[in-house]
Design a protein that fits this description.
The protein contains 9 helices and 10 strands. By secondary structure, the protein is of the alpha+beta class. Strands 7-8-10-9 form a 4-stranded mixed beta sheet, with helices on both faces. Strands 1-2 form a two-stranded antiparallel sheet. It has a two-stranded antiparallel ribbon with strand order 3-4. The N terminus is likely disordered. InterPro entries: At3g25440-like, RNA-binding_CRM, YhbY-like_sf.
């Protein structure tokens, strides 16, 4: 291989091919048509030596660089354009093997040309379509220690004590009012969990009773001692179940509601009529309802309706309702006190100004 045929050639690595730089600028690194001096490439005296210098400089300075295009081992265009014609077939094969060995297979380089500066970023994964894949970072949940939790609780307690012991009455009233409002919102959210969707109403044809039949059933229900209690839990599945059990042997059953708020007895009567399919005969002043099962009564397979609460859930709901009622009353009381305090301050200022 003659040195005259191997003139000073250098190779430029681009995204899709390898270009040749003229002999006047054998030590230039080009990108997008612009030549930039490369101080890392030493002078080469022969083609094979130049390849050795370029390979060593690339491995030294761009050890993790990966080229995106996949060049074939034997490309006719490369043979005719890049390599001199004076090379023998054996030498040409060696040069192509060297180029193929220096071609990296994993495309993980990113070129950044912001502010006119060429920079490379390594280690970025590139997807099948050429775009960078976003690496999901797993954020570890920070778990507070027991000591940190106690310190935090102690801090809030001290802060609350300062407000409760404040010499300013307005600060104390506002603190109580804000605390009660937070509790009210929490109780309303809790009560939403006990809302049971109502089942679609089945067609029901209530039986028409004459006045004589109503009078007879009313006297019969009053004389008999069988009854079903409705206590603080209100209407739940167990109440309807007991009514059906009493209707096995009796035509009528008394439902005693205690305690019962004014007007709540009519709500209980409407709800029990919907769930049991019975007929209301009479509502007494002592919060007692007399139900009649009907002439064509058939005991259902499921005596406790599915759209009702259980015994434990009904008691829990009652406790939240009671707490919500007392909290609402307390909020009204605090708001009234705050208004009275502002009125007192206004009167005091008037006296001072006069």
């Amino acid at each position: 291989m003659k040195s005259s045929s191997l003139r000073f050639w250098s190779f430029i690595f681009r995204h899709s091919d390898i270009n040749v730089v003229s002999r006047e600028a054998p030590h230039m690194f080009c990108y997008s048509g612009q030549s930039v001096p490369n101080p890392y490439l030493p002078k080469a005296t022969s083609f094979i030596r130049f390849l050795g210098h370029s390979n060593s400089s690339i491995s030294r300075n761009y050890n993790q660089m990966r080229l995106i295009p996949k060049l074939p081992r034997q490309d006719p265009a490369m043979n005719t354009l890049l390599l001199p014609n004076s090379l023998t077939s054996g030498s040409r094969e060696i040069v192509l093997k060297l180029l193929h060995a220096r071609r990296f297979s994993s495309p993980s380089i990113e070129l950044n040309t912001e502010k006119g500066v060429v920079r490379f970023r390594f280690g970025q994964e590139i997807g099948k379509r050429g775009g960078q894949t976003k690496v999901k970072r797993v954020v570890k949940k920070f778990k507070m220690s027991k000591k940190a939790k106690l310190n935090e609780l102690r801090f809030y307690r001290l802060k609350a004590k300062k407000k409760m012991r404040s010499p300013n009455p307005e600060v104390r009233i506002r603190y109580k009012l804000e605390k009660a409002k937070r509790k009210e919102a929490w109780l309303i959210e809790k009560l939403r969990n006990f809302e049971v969707p109502k089942a679609p109403d089945e067609p029901h044809d209530p039986e028409i009773l004459t006045e004589e039949e109503k009078f007879y059933l009313k006297r019969t229900g009053e004389k008999k001692k069988n009854y079903v209690p409705v206590g603080r839990r209100g209407v739940f599945g167990g109440v309807v179940l007991n009514m059906h059990l009493h209707w096995k042997k009796h035509e009528t059953v008394k439902v005693v509601c205690r305690p019962c708020k004014p007007g709540q007895i009519h709500e209980y009567a409407a709800e029990l009529t919907r769930l049991s399919r019975g007929t209301v005969i009479d509502i007494k002043p002592d919060n007692t309802i007399i139900f009649y099962r009907g002439k064509n009564y058939v005991q259902p397979d499921v005596m406790s309706p599915p759209d009702t609460l259980s015994k434990d859930k009904a008691l829990e709901k009652y406790r939240y309702e009671q707490s919500l009622e007392h909290t609402s009353q307390f909020i009204e009381k605090m708001e009234k006190e705050l208004v009275e305090y502002h009125e007192y301050l206004a009167q005091k200022r008037k006296k001072e100004n006069s």
